[in-house]
Hints:
Layout: H1 4-8, E1 19-21, E2 27-29, E3 36-42, E4 45-54, E5 57-68, H2 76-88, E6 95-99, E7 104-113, H3 119-141
Antiparallel strand pairs: 1-2, 3-4, 4-5, 5-7, 6-7
Amino acid sequence: MQPLAEVSQAALPLRLGTVHINADGLLGIAATPAPSKQRFAIDDVLYHVSIDPVGDGSRFRIWAELGYVPYTAQSPQRRRDILAILRATQHLARSCFVVDGGQKILVIGESHVEEHIDVTGVVYEIVQFLQEVRPYLRILSDLL
């Protein structure tokens, strides 16, 4: 029989449904982690994070709704300024700013990790995303 310590090191962190007893009566761990979703807020912006297992790796996605582009009749100068800032973000490698059909501004990031992502990996991906978009978010916050 496998020692519990050996099994517990195979797939940390352990979650509900991760550990099971196999047909031989030994402890086993589910090979593929379950998809997960989290939310957090920084500077009054609510971010959504999803992690999906893809083969031997993971797909990390993060997004937030920032506000709306004002109509030209409401504030033509603010509209021009916001659109100029959004155009300046086109070079970003890990993220993009998008304006949907309803004039809502979204910031979106996605990356693929070659292994199943753990808590440390999630924090790393979030920090990488925020380092890239935060300067633009600070400028936009004065206009939204």
